[in-house]
Amino acid sequence: MRRLIEFVRAQFALDAEGIHGIAHWVRVRSTGLRLADETGARADVVELFAWLHDSRRRDDGHDPDHGLRAVELATECRGRLFQLDDEGFELLCHAMEHHTHGRVDGPLTAQVCWDADRLDLSRLGIRPRRELLCTDPARRVETIERAWRSGQAWAAWRRSRRRR
What we know:
This protein is mostly helical. It contains 8 helices and no strands. It has helices at 2-11, 22-39, 43-52, 66-77, 86-98, 108-119, 136-139, 141-163. The chain is globular, with a radius of gyration of 15 Å.
């Protein structure tokens, strides 16, 4: 996984410490793996989603095709920087392609990916809304509060770095 992360970071076009950068990927991974453990979703897919889903963003704002570009990158890297069976790869691509569309229906593993990403909206000062989360564990008040605290802590750290 280390080689994949290094590759993704090296080709990332935006600020690696920005709102869609490495800290976001790490929080999505952590939250996603917790949710996968509770739901039975595929942890291998959830982890790959965390590292790849925003990897091809060209803009921190509106960038509607970044999910499709992430699918292209995953296709290039599969077999070289990570291994994943066909079913898992299909789930990964589905999750990445649709992660910005606000969907709540889909395969469980994709739902966990989307929840992990949406729970990290707190880094932007946006409280995740229960009705936009897919899984029961993600909708729990304590899950939302944990994500809120984590995202807000990162936002405070980033503000302090900008003042320097």
